[in-house]
Amino acid sequence: MEINTHNAEILLSAANKSHYPQDSIPEIALAGRSNVGKSSFINTLLNRKNLARTSGKPGKTQLLNFFDIDGKLRFVDVPGYGYAKVSKSERAKWGKMIEEYLTSRDNLRAVVSLVDLRHDPSADDVQMYEFLKYYEIPVIVVATKADKIPRGKWNKHESAIKKKLNFDKSDDFIIFSSVNKAGLDEAWDAILAKI
Ligand SMILES: Nc1nc2c(ncn2[C@@H]2O[C@H](COP(=O)(O)OP(=O)(O)OP(=O)(O)O)[C@@H](O)[C@H]2O)c(=O)[nH]1
Ligand SMILES: [Mg+2]
User: Fold this and answer.
1) Ligand 1 atom nearest to 176, measured from its CA
2) Taking the domain 8-193, which CATH number applies?
3) pLDDT per residue as tens digits for the range 72-112
4) DSSP code string of 74-107
5) 3-state secondary structure of 41
6) Domain boundaries, the chain
7) pLDDT digits (tens, 9 = 90+) for 131-171
8) In sequence order, which residues have a C-beta less than 8 Å from that of residue 180 and are 6 or more positions away?
9) Of ligand 1's atoms, which has the minimum distance to the CA of residue 114?
10) Atom 21, ligand 1: which residue's CA is nearest?
């Protein structure tokens, strides 16, 4: 499929099902802890500075943000998890919103699950991966911030992450950087293979 990735825009923000777009355009959702680089990943793939708003302030994205790409594909930016300063009730609301989307959305083709290449996955990262496997949702694990690790150490970090996640070999694993665009072509290839 030919997709003009320059033709991208924010479509809408949704808190629940009733706000989701009603059509059959394929969707790729982005999940990961707050600050891991989900919005930056979207901006890098679409070659845009700040289409998906990024910030040093974690917990900023509160709704499901749907991005239209040339009318043929959508990215769904999901609020990050694991931000300490979020109240219990906010956390429960978040859980409900994301669970509703992931378990009921027919348009969903795969989830890009972002982790930080520098660190072992958190308990929340492991739980998210297990959740996606349980619901048989295809996963593309993207290990971000690769620019902060020397290339010679990438393999070691990749192995540690895979082990902690109990990584399923049928999923994709991509080492990525929004700073130097490492992994950009692989990320697009993996996404296009799912839609
Ligand atoms: N060095 C480096 N910094 C990155 C990379 N990706 C994101 N960042 C930085 O990490 C911070 C958080 O990035 P965001 O893209 O806003 O993270 P997010 O996952 O969308 O965060 P929430 O919306 O709060 O869940 C920003 O300061 C980014 O500039 C990367 O590949 N390398
Ligand atoms: Mg964000």
Assistant:
1) 31
2) 3.40.50.300
3) 999 999 988 877 677 888 888 888 999 999 999 999 999 99
4) EEEEPPPB--TTS-HHHHHHHHHHHHHHHHH-TT
5) helix
6) 8-193
7) 999 999 999 999 999 999 999 999 999 999 999 999 999 99
8) 146, 147
9) 19
10) 35
